[in-house]
């Protein structure tokens, strides 16, 4: 069913970090922690063993706006987020000459690293991450372009290792007569 799939694209709503749902036992569960659990189960599923993973961190606009009111540490997975922020901080849309990253950018980076470390600890794979604002089609197109590039890099890597093999191989069958 998934034989032709090359990249698993996993979409995360960044703004879920302070949102909750009630599970089947009646308990309140953080939506980001639920997403983390789902990611863990997909990442370790044998079906996706040979595939690359691209995480789309979506709803960045809501995320930035929410961070003004609710700290990222509200989600226990991110309770180690203690950014050093300049008093002259910019927001991500600012075109000022101040290049200090905004709280939103630092928080995005923190979440991205959490997912990267998680995948690496579970599968030893490198995780690709892209920032998306679902309401801005350009950012969605860029992420899909990134997914196509990942596939291309994979093909190039495969071709390179195959050509390296035939170059160094001592197997007589790999030489032309
Ligand atoms: N502000 C903002 N809204 C978005 C973005 N991406 C999707 N949405 C909107 O979010 C709403 C919910 O969409 P989804 O997240 O796909 O649906 P869902 O998972 O069932 O919704 P929730 O669980 O409530 O988040 C829709 O109205 C979308 O248009 C985004 O990047 N920014």
TrEMBL record:
GO terms, biological process: G protein-coupled receptor signaling pathway
GO molecular function terms noted in the UniProt entry: G-protein beta/gamma-subunit complex binding; GTP binding; GTPase activity; metal ion binding
Residues that, per the record, bind GTP: 58-61
Entry-linked Pfam families: G-alpha
Alphabetical keyword list: GTP-binding, Metal-binding, Nucleotide-binding, Transducer
Name of the protein described by the UniProt record: GTP-binding protein alpha subunit, gna
Lineage summary: Eukaryota, Viridiplantae, Streptophyta, Embryophyta, Tracheophyta
